[in-house]
Design goal:
Layout (H helix, E strand, L loop, with lengths): L2 E4 L5 E5 L7 H16 L7 E6 L10 H9 L2 E7 L5 E2 L9 H14 L11 E4 L2 E4 L37 H8 L5 H8 L16 H16 L15
Antiparallel strand pairs: 1-2, 2-4, 3-4, 5-6, 6-7
Helix pairs in contact: 1-5, 3-4, 5-6
Amino acid sequence: MPGLVEGDDRRLYALKWSGAAQGRKALVAEVLAGELGRELGLPVPELVRIDLDPVLARSEPEQQIQEQMRASGGLNVGLAFLSGALNFDPLCFEVDAALAGRVLWFDALIGNVDRSWRNPNLLVADGGLRLIDHGASLIFHHHWPGAAAWTRRRYDAGDHALARFAPDLAAADRALAPLATAELFATAAARIPDEFLHDEPGFESPDAVRAAYVAQLCARAAGPRDWLPVLPDSPR
C-alpha cells in the first residue's frame, strides 16, 4: 500500500515504503527497473528519493499506516503522482501493437511478474499509458548464488495485461535490443541509492552490487534472446 505524500517541492508522490514487508530489494527493483524503462523511452513516471521523518506517524489515525511510517524513517522511493489517472483495464482501453510490444519486451527483460490482467500496474493519464510498480521484477536478486540461471529463463506472458493487443515483439526487439547496452544498464544502476545496497551478503560495496546487476542484465540482453515469450500469431 503506497502512501500519498507531498514533498518539500510541493509536488505529490506515491511513496514506496522502505519498511514494507517486501524490504529494500523491492525498492531496488523499483528504481533500477523504472529508470531502465525511462532510459528505453517507455512512459514510466518520474522517480525520486524521499526522506521521511517518522515523527509524522503521530498524526496518522490508521494504526497499520502508523506502523509503516515508523518502520520507514529515512530514505524511501517516490513515484510522481498522476492526478486524474485511471487504472488500466484491458477491456476498456486500446493499446497499439507497437507500444504493447515494447512494454512486453521490457517486462520480459526485467522478468516482471506483476503485469497481469488481474493487476496490470498500468495507468491511463493525459498522454496515454503509464507503467508503474516494478518492485516484483529482477527476482534473481533474492538469491544471488543462483542468479545466473535467470538470464536465460523464458518470460511467461500467458496472463500479461497487454497480450490481447497483438504485441509486436519483433519490432520491439529491433528497436530496443540495440539500446540495451552495458552503458544503459550502468546509468540506471547508478541511480540506486547506496543506502539500499549496503551490507548485501557476498558483496564488498554498493558499487559491487551495481556491477552485478549490470552483468545480469547484459547477459540477458545478449542474443539469442530466447527468453522472449512466444505469443499466438506472433511474428516470432
